[in-house]
């Protein structure tokens, strides 16, 4: 996609370049390319376990001289230099002939090959190159004899064991018999991408030198014309200029249209198919590393440009090298997001291709119709409907949605076309008929699409493609028919893609946070600022969109898009893409009747294809501008002659500068063209009108990554080292930014201090941030690897460490390092006598835990699970420090320049990770919900009445947010059990009781402690109550609510800033009459405040997104929860009971029930509402009393409150009880329940619960059938 081009140019082309063999320097081996070939060949041999190359398999590194790589040179370029686009000789030379010179004989195919390339400068501006490579006969006798000598040497080395006939069958060259040809390249460098026009111009120039008759004018006239006399077409206009043999037409979109894109999207869809293209598109949007792989350079460029063009209005912000020269293969080691293209020789299989990192890589084998995706790739929103819409468009244009392999573009590029059998991967079909119904039926994805498309009335068996030419007979087109079809196809597909983003981000402006401070301060704090309200935006989105959108909002491309929105206050300032996108968004808002901020997941198809198509047809039916025709130049007699079949070096004196009177060169263009040029500056270059904005753009580009684009030149060891050093700095900066972002989101306080209100992190967002941290760790561990093993570099390192430690531990005398033994910390003195032994801190043990999880099948998945587990245990920094302090292993696995061997940066990196210990993550527990987990339970009896005489058999049942256990029997002697069950999630309650057996079945329990043996999370469930008949409230079982305990004394000094879970009310809610004076007595104001806080907690709970709500049980039954608050209401003014007689709230409720059910009361005439309330109250009381559970009187009161809250009856019952005559017998006159004003206030507060659907945990209402 054309963005960021050099805006000062108004010429169609800046340079004309000739590359090829420099006969003066002779044959020079391309050492870097040869080294890369050697390394690749060695890896293929080693990987397949072949230590020597057998005769039948041919050669790998020891290539025959005709197949070796030799250096090409830029032989000439015209003009010498232009101020707005300095000539980069190294980069142009590399990309014109990425694999250097190649030689052929008359027996080899020598068809010309066209490819385009792009050079991205360090400031982000781009220029395009269009190269035509052809073969010329070698006329230099020295070169021919040098080649012959090389063959003699080569054959002498190979002669051992080979017959003469076999030698002749191999590639050979005989100076007496064969004609030697060498590749040569002509290239146009241009500010904008017009591949079709440039290809025509170059092919016509080549035809002129290879034709038997010379062209009408010297070649210099045509080159001069295209360099100096052909202008860039203005936005929204078309232009015609003359080639050697015919006119060439190009056109450019208008200010309201999608940006310029002239590559054939049809080829991409035929090569990959809709399904694969959409997966690749999703990877690009999420800034995943992408490697394209093909035998054809032009395919690499076309696919790369197509994917980035389809991203409109977003732009790829990272390393972008669609064609990676052979000498730059070390750049695949880059630990940053990239989009690169790698040339294939057509012989190596994918399995032999060793890539530095594959944990987060999207590998696209273009020629074989194959896309390999990273794990956990979220689905693009509305994917099925989107695929259907694109498929309908393709079918209408005569292209099969599943794609089909292209025939080879030139026989010179050798490679076999995949068979239909081998090409059925990823839901794509190849070979045979594109719409073979039998194959369609075999393939599920296509079958689904077929059914969808049939419903629209289009037949899949025979697609009737409308003949556009016949339907538009009046339209006289000035360009060739194929070119028009390409433009129409492009605009159809691009509009469908653009419409998706317009629909998804129709309301994005509402969530943009404009900076409150001045620009300079904003630039300074740019990395810390939130410029988009992500949480609010995501809360408005349909649920299925969230996995994709939460990751997309974290990308650099989205951040840059929002930054440019903030920077551009008026229309004139806006970049072209932003202006076009905002205009489309405004149009959607006007058309849509829905509320601006209300999102809908209803799929809305693209409606403006016709309009865009019409604009193109108008431009090509009437050409707006015609350039000057080529003419004779002021050349000396004898200049301009050349030998047929050889492309000459041009006359530098006539091509070095343009005409002095040329209006394009002197900028005396008409006002309209100047205006168009200004729009062009906004459209396709990040042109900024002041220093501050220029400074910002440069900083924003390097945000998170210190290197944006490799410099394709001067590849000395020092430059490579400097590049690697930039990578190390970039990784450290990215680590710092990521850890800070995660902590700010998790804690919220810093964000509030920055003036962004209350920040809450959603589960989806937290998951996204942790996934991106895992990706960063994989990139750090992949940087500078000596030998790659497996897809995850981090997991591979952990396994090497495990292996080395287990070997050491196997030797009897060895003693493990201190970190492996135990992290013993003293228990708090206030804790009970019985103590649960602390978990051993062991890196090896945590690796084994992950290895034992059968559900995780891949190395990448295991590495991510290990990172999540370490974060949850607050051991990530400690474990990685232990791993990296095995210097011997690190040296063995990593090269000297690797990040993990840069000591200062490594220390800072571990320090940043240490900051995660300040917050509680449940990123392992919440993600791996189906795995089996071991739990350890310890029952702590009272110190004073330890229960040594206790004769009953205790049991318990543990419940968490995900599930609960069956009833577990506890041995009465040990009071400890370990059990394994499916992940319970965060633990919420423990039901505990005994069977009342034996002589002394009374038990005073202090607390229960339950620990997850994998994550180390320990939950304490306070009790402080008796279990037994005739003691306390007579309960044989209790429901205890837990809190997460702090694991060590070290953490107690620096308390966690995440609010702790609420604890069980058992310690506070003692029975009323044991010692009335010891309880803190609350006044009516404090009780009202307590009720208000409890209700507020529940209301806030329901206003959070469903997945982020946590446990409602804690808010109902925990400390200062609703049950506790209503207990305070009923205990206030409760009359002191008689001596030695315990009276509970439940006693009062039972008396009230007896009163309501008495015959006298039934005879009294009351209104229907009152009677309904009484019936409900009595029904619930009877159900709880008749339950088989022995939960005691306080347990029954808790159950009644929970059921009343669930069925929205609490406020009715309070009104009933306040008017009940029993009140007078059991409450003093000063009690809260007798004050009508306070009771009415209480009823109003309780009524707020009516709008919420309260679902109770099964443990709270077990045994109740209502």
From TrEMBL:
SMART domains: dDENN (SM00801), DENN (SM00799), RUN (SM00593), uDENN (SM00800). Residues 405-426 have a biased composition (Basic and acidic residues). Residues 405-436 are annotated as: Disordered. It is found in: Membrane. One of its GO terms (molecular function) is guanyl-nucleotide exchange factor activity. Residues 54-575 form the UDENN domain. Residues 933-1041 form the PLAT domain. GO terms for cellular component: cytosol; membrane; trans-Golgi network. Keywords: Guanine-nucleotide releasing factor, Membrane, Phosphoprotein, Repeat. One of its GO terms (biological process) is retrograde transport, endosome to Golgi. Belongs to the RAB6IP1 family. This is DENN domain-containing protein 5A. It comes from Aldrovandia affinis.
